[in-house]
Design goal:
Order of helices and strands: EHEHEHEHEHHH
Structural class: alpha/beta
Distance between the termini: 30 Å
Shape: globular
Helix content: 25-40%
CATH superfamily: Response regulator
Number of strands: 5
Strand content: 5-15%
Largest sheet: 5 strands, parallel
Number of helices: 7
């Protein structure tokens, strides 16, 4: 387990749950979220199966005071055991979980990954191989605290053309 449960307090209702199996990417994402100025606690699980347990409140995640239900789920598409696509498919089948805001994260952008993730309910696609400042800007575009989808990108982001596609808002 990688979460810092003790820091979850008044902002726990804005928790971001991240399913990421690579410790380097975990550190990068933590740093990008901090630099994006997102004031929400972040909890990491290592794969889609652990994310399922967390979302269902299966031990050790059964205490919602310690492990609150997330406002946003960020999912790496390429993970062991249960990958991001399987997790997205599972979310769609469960009442209530199909409304959870979800951002998917992977390496180089592939159009079929975009389309498949969108069809499975993802709100945003993050390319984790971006320049760090672009990753921070993409994180700023994540769904808001009220669960709504992010606003359209700024004109600066739209001007980037193909690079913009790597952080696709659905």
């Amino acid at each position: 387990m990688c979460g810092d449960v003790k820091r979850m307090s008044a902002t726990a209702d804005r928790l971001i749950l991240v399913a990421e199996n690579d410790s380097s990417d975990e550190r990068l994402l933590k740093w990008a979220i901090t630099n994006a100025g997102i004031p929400a606690p972040v909890f990491f699980v290592h794969d889609g199966a652990e994310a399922m347990d967390y979302l269902l409140g299966i031990p050790p995640y059964h205490d919602r005071a310690k492990y609150p239900f997330p406002r946003l789920l960020i999912v790496n598409l390429k993970m062991p055991r249960v990958d991001g696509f399987e997790l997205l498919s599972w979310l769609q089948k469960l009442p209530g979980l199909d409304k959870l805001a979800v951002a998917v994260m992977s390496g180089p952008s592939w159009q079929q990954d975009f389309e498949r993730a969108r069809a499975l309910g993802a709100n945003l696609y993050l390319n984790k191989w971006l320049d760090f400042s672009e990753l921070v800007q993409a994180i700023k575009a994540l769904p808001t605290d009220d669960g709504s989808r992010p606003a359209k990108r700024s004109s600066r982001g739209e001007a980037r053309g193909r690079k913009m596609d790597q952080n696709k808002v659905f």
